[in-house]
Amino acid sequence: MTESILLSVEGGLARVTFNRPAYLNAMDFEMGGRWRDIAHQVTADPSVRAVILDAAGPAFCAGGDVVAMGTSGAGGSAVTEAAHVIHDGIRTFVESDKPIVAAVQGAVAGGGLGLMLAADYIVAGEKAKFVSKYANIGLTPDLGVSTLLAGAVGERRALRLLLQDTTIDAATALDWGLVAEVVAQDALAARAEEVARFWLAGAAGAFGQAKRLVRTGAGRSFADNLDDEARTIGAAFDTDDSKARVAAFAAASRKSKEQR
Fold it and tell me: What range does the record give for the signal peptide (predicted)?
């Protein structure tokens, strides 16, 4: 049986690939459980310092597989439980110290928006499309969409997507702040890897902690965020990586002053 989500880890880089292309990578019950398990596996792996989230086939993710769920005989309680499982994976990735770049092509619909927004940096192909479609089938937002979408584009634009049958293209998504970059489709995979390699080549631990501070900060008080910042920068200052980089920075500063 083909795995619904592929995982590979090499040289500090984890690649998580949605792999139900025949279903536009829509997430069914089994795939939701695998997403949660992979999120815990990747974020608990000390060798992983950056993550690429991508997808096989013409679409990134069409959200939840409502056809599979609707024909499974499952009731609302099963759907609620499945949502909790997928939410566990999203929360685990968002609150982790692993910076994540998503490579997004084709359609991103419904819950696919929330899965995409689990990433910290999103590179979209020039033909990518973004749409809600929840209310069209009488359902409500899940997979973090009500929070993550509003956080990315603002409340009014989030409501425009959720309350109207509006599809936005990649250029609009870039203008709204939904994605960080738009590139040609044939450059998408390479650009996402370039972003991840930039993290790996630099102070990957510091990038990861910066991501964690920003992603978790919105749900806490300012005082709690300041305390976390103080603890985190102190811990970073004591690492061998930071000591070497601070020393190099100081040496470069001294050299610059001497040359003036």
Answer: none
